[in-house]
Write a structure and sequence with these properties.
Bound molecules: erythose-4-phosphate
Strand content: 15-25%
Helix content: 55-70%
CATH topology: TIM Barrel
CATH class: Alpha Beta
Low-confidence stretches: none
Order of helices and strands: EHEHHEHEHEHEHHEHEHH
Number of helices: 11
Structural class: alpha/beta
């Protein structure tokens, strides 16, 4: 399973990119707004920093405007993937953009039914929001698992991005069930690195080494 980082913060992207573990970036309007910077500038900077797809989301609610905005975003950089919410207008926009060779990421997916529709409309990626399903008292990993099963069954080549990841267990479970990608916030990537036994082990090795020198 490939790992993307889910952020619009350049410093977070730079740090994690240096670890050599990320293959792409997803942003959304909330993440970009949090940075308080010009959208196009942020998207270009991310693309220059990271190899791989960089998702940038449209804000329009009507098909024609989504398509126009999507083309503008795609023109920013060849790595841009146009993120479009799953709704009637969004499906039609995904269809038009995919027919024009623009990569799309169907976002705000909360069911296998929505994922199937997005794939059939021509989405390059679908993004089921695991954590937000959990927030409603339902099982986000179950929804992800259903999508993996359906796509495997029909050899659908749309890639599944496990999104709205809240903790490392989400990432590991997504990998076990065969999701293609997980897009992971910086804080969760940090949690994934750390283990108390690794820290204890490092300290003990250094202490033993120092003791032997004396
Ligand atoms: C996915 O592409 C979204 O940006 C993201 O995963 C949303 O997650 P949240 O529920 O933490 O906002």
């Amino acid at each position: 399973m490939r790992l993307f980082i889910d952020t619009a913060n350049i410093e977070e992207i730079r740090e994690v990119n240096n670890w050599g573990v990320i293959s792409g970036v997803t942003t959304n309007p909330s993440l970009v707004a949090r940075e308080g910077r010009d959208f196009a500038t942020v998207v270009r900077e991310i693309c220059d920093l990271v190899e791989g797809p960089v998702s940038a989301e449209v804000l329009s609610l009507h098909t024609d405007e989504m398509v126009r905005e999507g083309k503008q975003l795609a023109a920013l950089h060849p790595q841009v993937v146009v993120k479009i919410p799953v709704c009637e207008a969004g499906l039609a926009a995904i269809r038009q953009l995919s027919r024009q060779g623009v990569s799309t990421n169907a976002t705000l997916v909360f069911s296998a039914a929505q994922a199937l529709l997005a794939a059939r409309a021509g989405a390059s990626y679908v993004s089921p929001f695991v954590g937000r399903v959990d927030d409603t008292g339902n099982d986000g990993l179950q929804v992800l698992s259903e999508i993996v099963t359906v796509f495997d069954h029909y050899l659908i080549d749309t890639e599944i991005i496990a999104a709205s990841i809240r903790h490392p267990v989400h990432v590991v479970e997504a990998a076990k069930m065969g999701a293609h990608i997980a897009t992971v916030p910086y804080s969760v990537l940090k949690q994934m690195v750390r283990h108390p036994l690794t820290e204890v082990g490092i300290t003990r090795f250094l202490d033993d080494w120092k003791a032997a020198q004396r």
